[in-house]
Amino acid sequence: MPLLENGRLVADAWTTLDAESPLPATGAVIVPLSRLEEGLARAPGEKLGVVIPQDAEIDTLRTVLPRLSLVAVTFPIFRDGRAFSQARALREHLHFTGEIRATGKPLPDQYEFLLRCGVSTVDLPPGSDPEVWAHAHTRFRTAYQPSVLGERAEGATLRRVL
């Protein structure tokens, strides 16, 4: 599937494995959460990512985050927004600096909010028009919510105390 970063299509250097695929000894791989321990057994220098379901507790990744280069959050349907909270928690509370990838069925209208929550890349759903997503990246310039990007919110806003 096409991969979008900062409104542009980019090459995907990662291989996403399912629960049955053999785990290669080398190369950047993304494993399901159920196979994370197996992925962690690879050589420490190999890039490892994990796909987490929308009902996963982010705090369970706390001890392994230093070994992860990528965490993929899942949007199974457009109205399930738990992945927004997961991405934000990864950045704000666990201070994850690696790639956060949105997978599943996010909508172009959600793109700017995905970025403001800490998502780095979006695995575009099948049938998506990359031009629509690129336009969504430039469509909104004013935001009232605080961002994990360190941007200043414009307009009247209530500051959150964490």
From TrEMBL:
This is DUF934 domain-containing protein. Pfam families: DUF934 (PF06073). It comes from the Bacteria. InterPro entries: UCP030820 (IPR008318).
